[in-house]
Amino acid sequence: MGGNSCLFGDQIAKIEEAAESSDHRFPAPIVLPHARCAILRSMTDTNLKAAVVGTGHLGRHHTRILSQMAGIDFIGAYDANPEQLETITTEYGVTALPTAEAAGDADLVVVATPTVNHRETAGMLFERGCHVMVEKPITATLDEAAELIAMADDRNLVLAVGHVEFHNPAVQTALGLAKGVRYLETQRLSPFTARSVDVDVILDLMIHDLQITLAVAGEAPSEIRAVGVPVLTDKVDQCHAWLEFPGGLVANLTASRVSSEKIRKLRVFGSEAYFSVDYGEQSVHSASLVRTESGIEIAPRIIEVEKDEPLKAELSAFVTACRGEGSPHVDGRTGAAALKAAIEIRKQVESR
């Protein structure tokens, strides 16, 4: 690879030691067509009405943040489980909506229902003129994703997808600094819980890192290889995937929901520099090659990260997009690209 080669092999340990002492493009800012922008730009200083459909594990946090966000009039939340709904609305002092359709009175809605309901619920809200953010994965199938994208496009509405890890300040910091990335690896390991067992670990956990990998690559993978096994459920609980891209990037992704410990790591190897991201700590350790008269040295680099709640940053980006302003949100096409890669990984696993 010449003088600007990426840092591989046995150098990884040395670097870590020093540091510790298809349109699958990067999600471009969304600017809505002129007529819609004119309407929304006039509302820049006006509160937007918001609602949440689905108040489970993530929905409750969407409710908490949106109901307290400046510039938002929170009209309420809905959940098919009355007891769950009462618990969340009482906790945050918000209105319990009688139906999902009632959320259609809002300007923007977060859909945090089970994935199998995303197409129906988001489609209903688009028909009522709402901007929508659906939790990841975007839908259960690629056909459903294409339908939602078309509905949003036809109505000049925002379709965002809840890939919250993309908004982690440590991730944004590292990706902003990494240049000429040729190799990245991720570890996303969790102890087993009963949550999200309706989907496999690929759609539950690995899809976060797939979306970030696609953002780095800026293109669809040319080759995918994967292995995985069910352990505690009838679906894949542990998976290892290898992705190659036409531009030369190679990605090595591991996800498990049967681990004895929780690990969230992203390592990015660029042109003469290395970045190690800890999602949970929101920290970035880095090292780079330094040329001196005596040769080449590996020098640690201090990276400052301004910590913030990723979900809050994600919702802020969504609201900004709904106002017709440029925003680094994960749009529908990007979410669909991540789903497509996840489905291909599943196929590779099932073919073995």
Task: Please provide the count of β strands.
Answer: 13
Going by helix content, strand content and strand pairing, the class is alpha/beta
Distance between the termini: 33 Å
Q: Which word captures the global form?
A: globular
Model regions low in confidence, pLDDT < 50 over at least 5 residues: 1-43
Radius of gyration: 21 Å
Major pleated sheet: 8 strands, mixed
* CATH hierarchy, class of the largest domain: Alpha Beta
CATH topology of the largest domain: Dihydrodipicolinate Reductase, domain 2
Order of helices and strands: HHEHEHEHEHEHEHEEEEEEEHH
Number of helices: 10
Query: What's the pLDDT, averaged over the residues?
Result: 88
How are strands sequenced across the largest beta sheet?
7-8-9-6-10-11-12-13
The structural domain count equals 2
The amount of helix comes to: 25-40%
Oligomer: single chain
Say which CATH homologous superfamily of the largest domain is assigned: Dihydrodipicolinate Reductase, domain 2
Strand content: 15-25%
Describe the structure.
The chain is 34% helix and 24% strand. The chain is of the alpha/beta class and 352 residues long. It has 2 domains: 2-25 and 165-310 and 330-350, Dihydrodipicolinate Reductase, domain 2; 34-157, NAD(P)-binding Rossmann-like Domain (Rossmann fold, 3-Layer(aba) Sandwich), CATH 3.40.50.
